[in-house]
Design goal:
Structural class of chain A: alpha/beta
Oligomer: homodimer
Number of helices of chain A: 10
Strand content of chain A: 15-25%
Helix content of chain A: 25-40%
Number of strands of chain A: 15
Largest sheet of chain A: 7 strands, mixed
Chain lengths: 341, 341
């Protein structure tokens, strides 16, 4: 079987297609009250999840995501070649502490909220290139640990602006295999860092929208696919503000996705009813929406082709305080159940 | 050409071997006064490197590393398929800000001081699996930006304990290609997270030594190589304290490397003369020592087989303040100029 079909500068097509043989998701109480509740494997009721700190809680549910993904894939640790994992916390401690007990080779990634797609890109390429047979892609985020790290301590009760996004408390796991039953990754488009000069950490949708638009546009250019090829083009977490900007940028290059375009940060909450401002964000957002709702739709035959576009804001509080703008990145993963195409 | 030879649970052998077609290094003033000065491409005289902050200085010299690696590889950005990069700073801002101007697909990694080896593992597998043709592996660290982030503001002049290591100000770049002239990567051993319960952030050598010993031991088990196969087994940056502990752990499983075993954190400084306590550390340590001295030794035929073992401490100040121990990881890359073996 041919292992590669290069189909453009940023897009790598797979002859041997990695299969998503299982997925799992764990979310927090707010996400469990949202419209996607039925799709999640576990809804935790307490943001501390029985731990003393939010960071430890995040590590704990990231581990639950890993365990659930392994169980649903019916794999033992000996059968797993590699874990690819990352999160938003400094030095990715949710992942490294959550997974330190796993007896499996581990590679840490940092792509901010794009990490689930970054892990699917790398894992997909390693499987398609016949380097490994099974890869677990695991990411998480936690509203409370992210908020105090990136913005202000929660105890201050700082008011949020309408463009602000709400970091999802939750995580998702995707098990990729070189064979098995499930949707397949047929190609990935790896993003470039993109900086349009946005400096407002309370408007990350605006910072990330250009990266999403560039990667989506490059993906259609590289593949030559028509804009109605996908049942859904789903950005990671741009929220309402970012989705509108991304749509504007796409329309400037004559890409009209219309109703086919949606965003995980908008889907995961009843944004108005739950007062989530611009919508959800965080490594756990796209990961749990894809692992939960989208995988369910694939399994029930409701969708056949999905383009998942993880978006990440690559800044830190230090860079923001030093007056820097917010560079962003987006990686796209094309997933299909049209096995014959 | 066969793209894979699996040679053990954690070790992946390459049929199509990635070639190190170029490397470059940039270091700061202390490293420039050390014993390896002659091997570095650029020694900067001022730790701020003309910038207003240490973080901006680090981004600036990481970019210089990238530019120098590209120039020495005689590659244009259009010929480069992928950048793999990371550093020690929160949210990897040295890498993302340093490389935001590069018009090249980018994937961010976090493996603390093991990042250069992590990038060579991933880049090597992607090339060997024929997914990409050219990958730039770029990492950096900066004493001042790391010290204030992980320990105390430099202005406090806090006294350092003898087991403390000195974060290297510098970076290294390695260009991997699917063909060309240079040493080749013939296999990689990907590490597992390893936590022996060490809690002292001023003794990272002790925290990382078990991970190094486990990966080295697994590498010899997987490959069946004799302990004198390598001219040098070179750990990333354990320093004196960690090297001694690693040697002890290896001797317990009857691996005696003797003079063949050395450490980048010991090589980069005249540790006693420069008062560097246990030795150097940081993402830039193994990266600059390998890119500089080791690549020079390969090119001059002084060495033929090297095992580079990048070691990383996967903790954060938050995890340390919450009373956690320090998990660590080590990834090994086997590099050879014995093309026929």
């Amino acid at each position: 079987m041919k292992s590669k079909k290069a189909i453009g500068k940023q897009t790598i097509g797979f002859g041997l297609r990695p299969v998503i043989i299982a997925s799992a998701s764990v979310v927090g109480p707010d996400e469990g009250k949202g419209p996607l509740a039925e799709y999640f494997d576990l809804i935790i009721k307490d943001k501390l999840y029985g731990e003393e700190t939010w960071e430890k809680a995040e590590s704990k549910f990231l581990k639950e995501v890993f365990n659930a993904t392994m169980a649903k894939a019916k794999l033992a640790e000996d059968d797993l070649d590699l874990i690819l994992s990352g999160d938003l916390l400094n030095q990715s401690i949710a992942a490294t502490f959550g997974l330190r007990g796993a007896d499996v080779p581990f590679l840490g990634l940092f792509g901010a909220c794009s990490t689930i797609c970054e892990s699917m890109c790398i894992g997909g390429m390693l499987i398609s290139g016949e380097m490994v047979n099974h890869v677990a892609c695991i990411t998480s985020s936690h509203f409370c640990s992210a908020e105090r790290q990136f913005r202000t301590p929660l105890e201050l009760g700082t008011q949020r602006v309408p463009s602000a996004q709400w970091t999802v408390t939750g995580g998702g796991g995707i098990m990729l295999g070189n064979q098995g039953q499930g949707p397949e990754i047929d190609c990935v488009t790896i993003g470039k860092i993109c900086d349009y000069g946005v400096k407002d950490p309370a408007n990350m949708g605006a910072a990330m929208a250009p990266a999403a638009a560039e990667t989506i546009s490059q993906h259609f250019k590289d593949t030559g696919r028509s804009y109605d090829y996908y049942d859904m083009v789903l950005t990671g977490d741009l929220g309402y503000v970012g989705r509108e900007l991304c749509n504007e940028l796409l329309e400037k290059v004559d890409i009209k996705l219309g109703e086919r375009y949606n965003d995980c940060g908008i889907l995961i909450f009843d944004v108005q009813g739950q007062d989530m401002h611009s919508g959800g964000s965080g490594c756990g957002c796209a990961a749990s929406v894809f692992s939960g709702m989208i995988m369910d739709h694939f399994n029930k035959g409701k969708v056949q082709n999905i383009l998942l576009v993880g978006t990440g804001a690559l800044f830190s509080p230090t860079s923001a305080m030093q007056g820097e703008s917010i560079p962003a990145i987006a990686h796209a993963v094309s997933i299909t159940t049209k096995y014959s195409c």
